[in-house]
Amino acid sequence: MKILIYGINYAPEMTGIGKYTGEMATWLAARGHEVRVVTAPPYYPEWQVAEPYSANRYASETRDGVQVVRAPLWVPSKPRGKGRLVHLASFALSSLPLMLRFALWRPDVVFCVAPSLLNAPTGWLAARLCGAHAWLHIQDFEVDAAFKLDILRGSWLKRTALAIERALLTRFDSVSTISGKMLERAADKGVRAAQLVRFPNWASTDAVFPLERVSRLKAALGIAPDAMVVLYSGNMGMKQGLDVLTDATLALKDQPDLAFVFCGSGPARAAIEAACGELPNCRVIDLRPVEELNELLNLADIHVLPQRADAADLVMPSKLTGMFASGRAVIAMASPGTELHSAVAPRGMVVPPGDAPSLAQAIRALADDPVRRAEFGKAGRAFAVASLSRDGVLEDFDARLRAVRAARKGPSKVGTKAESPKTPALEVVRDAERPG
Question: Which member of 311, 359, 385, 386 has the lowest number of beta carbons within 10 Å of its beta carbon?
Fold first, then answer.
């Protein structure tokens, strides 16, 4: 079938939404679908367009069997407030003619990825023009997050943005998101139950797996062989609560048996480097090439997942899947009742968001307890294999797509089961709350 994917982030971005959209498109193409993508040049999480791509011109390439067309956009050096809105709007405008052109290709499904919700009107319009199924996939509730994190302010602006968001969500044929709590939030915004689909992020359990040796990166970074490595890897943005991890690192700076590694890029990196970059037991490094991902995740004795309390359940951190798949212990910051808490508590340590002393205490306690670290790592790996495997999640998604096409051709050509698939990863359920 013909699938048109529309979103601002795509491969070769190695973190966040671009990683998952790229893997999804490649997987679908390998299963025989004709997949085309309208996206931007890669810029995330560095907020700088990567070489050899350009921010100023249209470009086309074939990547892993997928035709990818890239529209120009403006990338701010400091992505905040109005600057971020202009950034998103620049792509929404420049990609409009591409989407209208691809409507003539007559795809079966137009799959829009949010963020950015500013793309949604164009994706919906393209689907309606060609009679395709309009599908909106929500990785972040960006409107809620923007106001809770003070990226945007003002009661009138908030009411207007939420009203526009509600109008957009309710017009799509299918609305999916990555967790049960986020599905509940979509329902609160007016999306009917018949439209809702749970489509979680996945773990590449074949590419990320426990190593039976010490990661080569440990020696490369000059970390003592017997030191316990505490790793944060991913985007260094406002939602991550990295200031709390920085405070915990400073509280433990005089303990030479601990080594802290911050890996990634983003607006918060400069503050991390200023606070911790000169500490003898701290390293701040760039993201590693994709072929070194398993070495990086296995560098950790303890993975740390900080999170701001005001971002709880607006996002479900995608980096958690790789942490579990690596078979290493995880400490997360989450409040009881949130989906992140439900996912981590049975197979890791959970501390309150924003509480640096509690985080430091948890790191010290887990570093001193090799048995507990091993138990957590084994439980996380088992959960990743059983519930988060890429092939399992995407096979369910593929079945849903094929059923959508069959249903649109009319009941005479399909049976009841094809019209209403009940695949495990796509039902409105909370897999994260099941035992690992």
Answer: 386
What's the number of domains the chain is made of?
2
Q: Is the confidence at residue 136, as pLDDT, over 60?
A: yes
The residue with greater pLDDT, 359 or 314, is 359
Based on the fold, state whether residues 98 and 146 are members of the same structural domain: yes
How many C-beta atoms lie closer than 10 Å to residue 67's C-beta? 17
Residue 60 and residue 26 in one domain: yes
Residue 322 shares a structural domain with residue 422: no
Same domain, 125 and 181: yes
In this model, does residue 156 exceed pLDDT 90? no
How much is the pTM? 0.84
Mean pLDDT in residue range 31-43: 97
Least trusted range by pLDDT, from 73-82, 173-182, 276-285, 375-384: 73-82
